[in-house]
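Fold this sequence, please.
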Amino acid sequence: MPENKRINPQARHNARHYAVQALYQWQLTGASGTDIENQFLKHQISKQVDLEYFKELLHGIVSEQKTLDEHMHPYLKRQLHELDPVELAVLRLAIYELTKRPDVPYRVIINEALELTKKFGSVEGYKFVNGVLDQVARKIRAHEIGEKKTSS
């Protein structure tokens, strides 16, 4: 990411918000990421959004879905097809950010994932998402988590 580009946290949050909805639609319909992107750009997105980030999340997750799923698989007690579609979309989004966006602190990623799960998922879904992401983050971002523990 260019150093001179300032991040708008609200626009980034909104990008994640719409990305979860788009991923949910992708998971249920099997439509292409491009078709879903076009639909969202035309009919859904109405708030201030980091459109570049929305597009990166949508297309990156669609193309990396198998690898993202492999990261969470060891920490699941059930099969992927048995997961709530919202929780699966949030997990994929957060794991994408954990693996592909080292510029975003892991705590921000997990916090955003929990907020999205509370908004769109089941009542207790955030607990499941938190448990999985905590374990995935310890593996993927071990260096960052270790730094936080030693500097506290």
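The two ends are 28 Å apart (CA to CA). The mean pLDDT is 92.
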